[in-house]
Amino acid sequence: MSATEPIATGQSPDSLGERVPTTAVGTQTPRRGTAPVVLADVLERTQRIGLVDDTLVEIALAVYISKELERSNPLWMMLVGNPSSNKTQLVTLLSKARDTYMLDVMTSNPFISGLSKKEKPQDLLPKLDGMCFIVKDYTTIFGRSEETVKQLLSDLVSIYDGSFSKHSGARGTVRYDTTFSHIGCITPMGLSMRQQYMNMVGARFLTVRVPELREDQRAHCFNIAWADDFKTRVTDAAEAASGLVTALCDGIRGHGVQLAPVAKPIQEEINLLAELVARARGEVRTRTQKFVTDEGEEKTYQEIEDVQVEEPFRAMHQLKTLCRALAILREKEEVTAEEVKTAKRIALSSMPVHRAEVLSAYRTESKMSAKQVSDLLDKNYKTVKRHLDQLLHLKVLRSEKDSDGKTTRYFPDPRFEKLILSSVGDLSLFP
Question: Which of 168, 171, 301, 320 lies at a 20 to 30 A Cα distance from 46?
Fold first, then answer.
């Protein structure tokens, strides 16, 4: 809006008015109202269309529900998977839900247009308030020019925080106060191109990675894809999932969030996960230095120039919201260890994939040299050492000299030791 016009809130015309505050009352789960199915029914249908990872389905549904829980801390999730890994199939489960706004791709400058009023600009942002916004393909726009991508990500930072304004000569200053949950789909390569800048500006997205299928799962999915009634199965799954989340949101609006307060031990686990997320996706700036050995050989090494680590509070609120949404979805009376396990998967997926891969090496032993990690992962030694040193400076790992005084061994910081060493035994938690 211009400076003389009222601020638009973008309330969806078919939403149900004021949202109920999220203060916990009692210990009963929100009533489903007229929900035709429960979560088990949805998972049965999604298995029949080749979505073999039930937790991924639950995460997608929880992101949708989160729009009713935390207006100031919405869940934004980046779904990362190889091409044709059922990312689209997963988000399409929400296509029939009342408050879904879905796009195949985004153009540059999508949220507030710079067109003049005479040209009837169609701003996207006011249409998203109170919705679950789904973008099926971020890879395309992340592959555009660096300037375009940086502008989009900078806009998203402000939009996430609830208010976004933009000035143009044609329209003056336009501002919207808008919050929404969000799921974006992207390939690992598409994300890796821009993840550094995302982390530099302060990550608003959590990330979940779609694991590669095992051979038996791939054969099972081939059989499903050839089924004569496959399209009917897809429709049934979408109707069941959309009906469930719509009814749960109606229950939250009508009766409030009826979960017990999060127990102190669970709070402490979520806090620890948030700190791990914040540190593991921190930025480490290096520069190349050279020196000459006594034998006259010139060698290079990376010297740490600067380290930037976000405070963990945003991640804590996001993981808390995720756990509460999952508890509601699973018909729990409170957040339990099961929800924290799912949050662990998100936390480990939300760090850069190379760092997560290095940490996954600790499934064999708790202290290792860069050479041992390199051999175990079958990765280039210099690359592995660089990631180990970054995790060292981010205080996720510590190091000590071996008895020979030369070999450096790396091991998890005591705060994260239990989390890392217990998680790596469960490969579903690592990307």
Answer: 320
pLDDT digits (tens, 9 = 90+) for 285-341: 877 777 777 777 887 777 777 888 989 999 999 999 999 999 999 999 999 999 999
Helix (H) or strand (E) holding 400: strand 397-401
Give the pairing type, strands 76-80 and 181-186: parallel
Tell me the three-class secondary structure of 155-170, residue by residue.
HHHHHHCCEEEEEECC
Phi first, then psi, for residue 410 (nearest 5°) are -105, 145
Q: How far apart are the first and last CA of the chain?
A: 43
Query: How many alpha carbons lie under 13 Å from residue 168 in its C-beta half-sphere?
Result: 14
The token pair that represents 360 in the structure block: 């996954």
Q: How far apart are CA 28 and CA 260, in angstroms?
A: 8
* pLDDT score for 115: 65
- Per the CB < 8 A criterion, the answer to whether 421 and 412 are in contact is yes
User: HSE (CB half, 13 Å, CA atoms) of 227?
Assistant: 15
Radius of gyration of the chain (CA): 23
Q: How many residues does the chain have?
A: 431
Query: Which DSSP letter does residue 8 get?
Result: B
CA distance 311 to 282: 10
- Rounded to whole angstroms, how far apart are CA atoms 263 and 265? 6
